[in-house]
Fold this sequence. Notes:
The chain is of the alpha/beta class and 249 residues long. Helices cover 47% and strands 16% of the residues. The protein starts with a strand and ends in a 6-residue tail after the last strand.
Amino acid sequence: xxxxxxxxDNEKLRLALSKGFSNINNIKVLHVCDTGEEAFNYCLQNLNxxxxxxxxxxxxxxxxxxxxxxxxKEFPRIPIIxxxxxxxxxxxKDFCNSGILTHYAYVRKSNYLLPEMLIPLILxxxxxxxxxxxxxxxxxxxxxIKEKNSPMALLEPNEQKVAKMIAYGMTNEQIxxxxxxxxxxxxxxxxxxxxxxxxxxxxxxxxxVARTRASIIYNKNMLIEWDEQGNAYYLDENRQRKLIPFDEx
Length: 249
């Protein structure tokens, strides 16, 4: 018997999936819910879940990928079937960084909506196989290339966190408190390292200008250089220096 947990934020689809799977032999729907947090807590209290069928977009704080990461901390390689209609790059980025390699399928909801179509994926994931919808695989590869060429790839984990908080508009004091640093000068040293890695110390500027430029680099997710006149440039795929028009910054 396959014990199924369904995690879906759309009430009508949640009920339809539950009803559809309940009519299939050897499938038992243990529980249905709309948040990753509830799914996680349910699995902690009910250790007999065989497979999780989960939308990527959920009602709670965690999305489906984040929920899977938390689940696999407690239940290594628990089989999970993701499905989604979303093309939000953040989901693909989360998937790239999740470390999920086996016991899963990731498909478009529009292509795999009926329980009968999901059964082979469920059986394969339980057997340890993996499957990713070709359309989603293309998007994931695009994100991987972007991530590899991202300015963030030049930074260590703590530096990445600080860069994000700088872009969010937080002060050094606020960042130090959030990071739990005893010595607030640590943030200044980390800022300096970020500026160095992103070539923001090339031209003499004050810290406010460097912070602003670091925020632009973070939000644009591309390495940008400024000349002494304040013109902004980026390197294209052929490593050629290209001017960024003023109204595009």
